[in-house]
């Protein structure tokens, strides 16, 4: 009997589901389906893989969306489990993170079918019964990329093809620095203008995150707002970790044009960076190196207690972002309750309490019980133990693989809808 492994559709956006089917199997036979993707990094090629154990039905078919995985890198009925459960293959460097550097090329995932229920070690040399390949895109076919070099501004703008105008969003990442484009490209793939804004460790920008000027972010807001393809009426900001802090700082100090702010596991207090405004350093809470502790996973560190001084800060402390200054901005806080990098759920609640104390009701919170720090685009490999430039070591970012996958799957479409609703409104609603 001819065995066949198929993926439908064979090419799609990263955040869309596919159907994987194996046919031509013996009835009730045990099989393993494996997923493999390779990523080119400056240090070399890194391989990621996942696998799942299935039992064919009475007609010799395995339908991944409909049947239960009995083991492997995930269990249960999970349509996209073979994608989000991929992890570094044996022999890869501890702490690597799956992060796409060139969004103009697809993430290619190779699928293979094997007899029996095999583990990761056995799959390295196992005989292949059938194969299939799927292309997963961060940048849709109807999206164009524009390089930004305007004054000191750098980065990339992704926009739907055509004159628009479209809602505009500035997207920022955290202490990794550099230019990260995948989320901005995905935002554009869903009808928004996404400006991937680097702010240090890129091109001729400052090499260190403690050399930042808040005016740089204001200039980015002004520049994006002035583009003819961006809807008038205000733009949105999205940031994760340190990038989320830059979101709150920018929204607080320059409220006129920022009408939507999304913070993903951020903090309501100015921490880590000596951020300057008008040439003067803003007060900040420094990173407490002495409270870095070993994580439960050998070889990793836990940063959770490095900002415990935040619990003692009162509401008048100048290090707290005055987000109530922007009463026409809608705030969306996304937080993982299993965070290990810092207590972002508590920080989000403190930010909302501050808004409420000042008579503001322009906020909402999405919180996820088994999610950690890096809640990203759904159906891509999840990262938990990742190298951190701040700590100079591998850091436990918290959460479970399944919990992170579910948080990404739920929060991503809600965030896209939030940005569509609140960016580019001529008369923002509170």
Beta-strand fraction estimate: 25-35%
Total strands: the figure is 23
Helix-residue proportion: 10-25%
The main β sheet shows up as: 8 strands, mixed
Structural Rg? 22 Å
Structural class: alpha/beta
The whole-number mean of residue pLDDT values reads 94
Unreliable residue stretches: 426-430
Query: How many individual helices?
Result: 7
Pfam families: BAAT_C, Bile_Hydr_Trans
GO biological process, one term: fatty acid metabolic process
Organism: Acanthaster planci (Crown-of-thorns starfish)
Domain Acyl-CoA thioester hydrolase/bile acid-CoA amino acid N-acetyltransferase: 15-149
Keyword list:
single chain, 430 residues, alpha/beta, eight-stranded mixed β-sheet, six-stranded mixed β-sheet, 7 helices, 23 strands, 29% strand, globular, fatty acyl-CoA hydrolase activity, AB_hydrolase_fold, Thio_Ohase/aa_AcTrfase, Thio_Ohase/BAAT_N, Acyl-coenzyme A amino acid N-acyltransferase 1-like isoform X1
Architecture overview:
This protein is an alpha/beta fold and 430 residues long. The protein has seven helices and 23 strands. It has helices spanning 81-84, 120-123, 182-189, 214-225, 242-253, 344-357, 401-422; strands at residues 4-8, 11-13, 19-23, 30-41, 44-55, 62-63, 87-88, 107-115, 130-137, 143-150, 153-160, 168-172, 193-196, 235-240, 258-264, 276-277, 280-281, 293-294, 301-302, 330-336, 363-368, 385-388, 393-396. The radius of gyration is 22 Å and the shape is globular. The termini are far apart. Mean pLDDT is 94; it is low at 426-430. Belongs to the C/M/P thioester hydrolase family. InterPro entries: AB_hydrolase_fold, Acyl-CoA_thioEstase_long-chain, BAAT_C, Thio_Ohase/aa_AcTrfase, Thio_Ohase/BAAT_N. GO terms for molecular function: fatty acyl-CoA hydrolase activity. Pfam families: BAAT_C (PF08840), Bile_Hydr_Trans (PF04775). This is Acyl-coenzyme A amino acid N-acyltransferase 1-like isoform X1.
């Amino acid at each position: 009997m001819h065995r066949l492994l198929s993926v439908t559709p064979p090419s799609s956006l990263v955040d869309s589901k596919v159907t994987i089917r194996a046919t031509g199997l013996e009835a009730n036979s045990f099989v393993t389906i494996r997923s493999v993707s390779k990523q080119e990094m400056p240090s070399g090629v890194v391989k990621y893989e996942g696998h799942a154990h299935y039992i064919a039905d009475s007609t010799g078919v395995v339908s991944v969306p409909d049947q239960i995985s009995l083991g492997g890198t995930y269990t249960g009925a999970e349509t996209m489990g073979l994608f989000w459960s991929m992890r570094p293959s044996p022999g890869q460097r501890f702490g690597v993170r799956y992060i796409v550097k060139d969004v103009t090329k697809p993430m290619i995932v190779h699928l293979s079918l094997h007899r029996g229920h095999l583990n990761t070690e056995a799959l390295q040399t196992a005989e292949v019964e059938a194969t299939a390949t799927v292309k997963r895109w961060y940048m849709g076919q109807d999206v164009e990329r524009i390089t930004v070099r305007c004054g000191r501004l750098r980065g990339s703008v992704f926009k739907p093809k055509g004159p628009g105008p479209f809602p505009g969003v500035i997207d920022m990442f955290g202490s990794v620095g550099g230019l990260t484009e995948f989320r901005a490209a995905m935002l554009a793939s869903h009808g928004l203008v996404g400006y991937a804004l680097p702010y240090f460790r890129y091109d001729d920008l400052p090499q260190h995150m403690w050399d930042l000027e808040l005016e740089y972010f204001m200039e980015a807001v002004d520049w994006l707002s002035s583009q003819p393809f961006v809807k008038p009426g205000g733009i949105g900001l999205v940031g994760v970790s340190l990038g989320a802090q830059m979101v709150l700082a920018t929204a607080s100090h320059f409220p006129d044009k920022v009408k939507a702010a999304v913070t993903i596991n951020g903090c309501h207090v100015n921490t880590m960076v000596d951020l300057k405004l008008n040439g003067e350093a803003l007060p900040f809470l420094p990173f407490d190196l002495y409270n870095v502790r070993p994580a439960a996973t050998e070889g990793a560190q836990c940063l959770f207690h490095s900002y415990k001084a935040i619990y003692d800060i009162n509401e008048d402390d100048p290090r707290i972002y005055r987000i109530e200054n922007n009463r026409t901005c809608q705030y969306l806080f996304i937080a993982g309750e299993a965070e290990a990098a810092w207590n972002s759920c508590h920080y989000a609640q403190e930010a909302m309490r501050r808004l409420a104390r000042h008579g503001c009701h322009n906020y909402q919170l999405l919180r996820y019980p088994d999610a950690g720090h890096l809640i990203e685009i759904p159906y891509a490999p999840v990262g938990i133990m990742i190298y951190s430039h701040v700590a100079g070591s591998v850091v436990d970012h918290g959460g479970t693989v399944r919990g992170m996958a579910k948080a990404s799957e739920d929060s991503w479409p809600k965030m896209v809808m939030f940005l569509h609703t609140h960016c580019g409104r001529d008369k923002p609603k509170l």
